[in-house]
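Aim 2, interim progress: modelling of the zinc ion-bound target.
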Amino acid sequence: MSNNPLPVQIGLTIITGPMFCGKSAELIRQIRRLRVAKSNVLMLKPAIDTRSASVSTRDGQSLDCTAFASTHHLADIIGAHPNFMLAIDEAQFVLARELDHWIDLIRDEMTKRLIIVAGLNLDFRGEPFPAIADLLPVATKIQLLSSVCMRCGSDNGVRSHRLQGGDTVVQIGDEEYQAQCLHCFSQSVVTARS
Ligand SMILES: [Zn+2]
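Predicted structure of the complex, ligand included:
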């Protein structure tokens, strides 16, 4: 740990949007910027996302990351790093049963340090992920990113369409999804139901 003074930046930034909109790339960009400014930044993500122990972007950028198994585990990690800003990726994977603790934890810590939370806004049915949605009213900055629609090529990809049917809300695997615009998403939903 360095001898930096306590962080002066506090608050909560939320980076959200559909699949393939560059959330992790934006998160990494902001972490690198903070580190240039000599801030300590701890990168975290829920352990349910087992794709790797680092956070990677589709253009090959990668940063080491600490996985947390529960929000109580997260609280322990945060408590052990009082002088660190926090960057939490894939936060939509925080478990529903831990939602209240998650919201309380972030609301408390954002008054002491800067927290950047990145995650999907909506599942493939177009329903909000509460771990992101319930933080939006208390955020100090919200970045809503969009993708290119992978069906029609427009610049308005704002929904995550799952190519295969099924009932599971969260499936990990980018190849199963497309970012789509509202127009294509509504057509895809109709097609999937017929
Ligand atoms: Zn489209």
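Strands lie at 11-17, 41-46, 54-56, 62-64, 66-68, 85-88, 114-120, 141-144, 159-162, 177-180. Residues 149, 151-152, 154, 180-181, 183-184 surround zinc ion (CB under 6 Å).
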